[in-house]
Amino acid sequence: MVAGTGGGEADRVDRGGDRGHRDRAENILPTSATDRLMSVEGSTLQVLARAPLVFLTTIGRTTGRPRTVELWFTYHQGLLYLLGHADAHWVRNLTANPRVSVEIDDTSFAGTAAFDDENRAMAYRLFEAKYGGQQVAYWYRGRREDRLTVAITPVMTGH
Length: 159
Description:
Layout: H1 31-36, H2 42-48, E1 54-59, E2 66-71, E3 74-76, E4 79-85, H3 89-96, E5 99-104, E6 107-115, H4 120-131, H5 133-139, E7 147-158
Antiparallel strand pairs: 1-2, 1-5, 3-4, 4-7, 5-6, 6-7
Helix pairs in contact: 4-5
């Protein structure tokens, strides 16, 4: 699953043991630990923003277990932006708990997600610039008003 449509068991991405990934639950930090960390430097994120995908881990709203989904993303002024449907499991998980972990090219971040629909048009423009208008139109078809814009404030947790 690529473009963030979300749905059922497809929300879980098994990345296997070939890259030595730890259980993603380790990267979702309690509030006190996250508060002690410094914000991610813009230059680090600007380099990582070229990556095509982000692995977003949320906490399941009913199970309390980590759930990882592979999504397209953009970066702008210190925030990561995602687009999703209100019925996508990862979006519904964020509604229940905004604490997330994000992995881009083997760099991990903790973060806090917030719905930011005021910046939906900007997020679409950024997605179109990064992925191409035709791809965005295909994967994010339908009324743009039906998509939610999620902004994540990242904090680096490890490489």
